[in-house]
Amino acid sequence: MPLAKRIIPCLDVKDGQTVKGTNFINLRQAGDPVELGKKYSSENADELVYLDITASHEGRKTFTDMVRRVAANISIPFSVGGGINELKDVDRLLNAGADKVSINSAAIHRPHLIDDIAYHFGSQVCIVAIDAKLEENGQWYCYLNGGRIRTDHQLLDWAKEAADRGAGEILFTSMNHDGVKHGFANEALAQLSESLPIPVIASGGAGCMEDFKNTFLVGKSDAALAASVFHYNEISIPDLKHYLRREGINVRI
Amino acid sequence: MEVAIIKYNAGNIYSVVHALKRLGTDPIVTDDAETIKGADCVLFPGQGEAAKTMEYLRERHLDSLIKELAQPVLGICIGMQLMCSCSEENDATCLGIFDVPVKKFVSPARELKIPHMGWDSLSDMQTPLFKGLNTGDYVYFIHSYYVPLNEHTIAQNNYILPFSAAIHKGNFYATQFHPEKSGTIGNTILQNFLDIASQS
Questions:
Q1: Does B136 score more than 50 pLDDT?
Q2: Whole domain around residue A63: which residue ranges?
Q3: Is residue A140 part of a domain?
Q4: Cβ–Cβ of A94/B11 closer than 8 Å?
Q5: Which DSSP letter does residue A44 get?
Q6: Which of A94, A97, A124 lies closest to B142 in CB terms?
Q7: Which of A53, A182, A202, B174 has the most other CB atoms within 10 Å of its CB?
Q8: Nearest CA in chain B to A167
Q9: ipTM of the complex model
């Protein structure tokens, strides 16, 4: 059996609570992040992603405390992201018990941060998250600060550079698909997956179980991330995994 | 039961501490020779780079200490690789508890990415370390180097080629995967190791 495709619930955390945005705005509450993580872990989620969407200094401290509680309670790998700007942020979060960190805006501002994380902690801890939008000219452009600021970086070029610098995985969120629930950006994902020597995590667009099948088969994704469909019980992870296995996709049950 | 975890410059040691606490033990993380020698069992976990880690162990004389331990010892991931004779990772000379070299994965195809990362299955399991497990059970791997199949292999995985998911010799056990990150299957393996220690 080949390596299992991974299902990854993503928890956006603000002031110690899980929230979920639609198209990057209008946040809704979805519960205690540690309890929710335990629930997903018991349902055989393969990994968890916790994103700190608080900006304040106090919020950062609350988030680090939460990471400690997650590490003490959950026996599957989890990554953390949001507000990671320098090595000492990485050190703090790994020390709190996170397995991996994801960096986004900071990596575009200072690409050398990727090299530094890979050198000091190993590529396996470094996820480079990319938010990108497909424009009318057919090109994907990368965005900063949760999709607020457009850059001239093109998706594939930036993903390749990140991999060359030592990223261990690419987490690609399509801003066109995020929150819309009509499936993942499989064409772009397949291109990424075929061009990169590292795993690609699909994000943005999960609405039904078939969307997951398609991102593994058509998008050639190594993992699929989703938030609201799991938080609001629209899709249960055990049902999803049984469905995927019936469809011939290797998943851990 | 006294459970000692060897403290050294590797990542992810605390996830092993948490996992063992969830199993009702109170592990101590230490580099003190007497504490380690006096423990009922010892874990040698972590993530890291082989050459630098070996240098760190030698400077603190932990290399000879680990080799001479007589109680059950469980190496995890880089801990397992360091128990072998040498590693292709920066040509490190390792502890030599297992007379097997550690090799680097070479991918024959784009879809076989390196590192081997994620949930993969176990087969050909032997010894009480795997009591209660079934062929095909999934555990979490994250590694770019591997231990080839050898006379000490007690579990296999097949990624690019069949390799040792776990090895055993005398009081030394080691897993390439991370039981502390492998959910309930991983908890069973850690509990089995504690049971081995309490019976020896």
A1: yes
A2: 6-246
A3: yes
A4: yes
A5: T
A6: A124
A7: A202
A8: B115
A9: 0.89
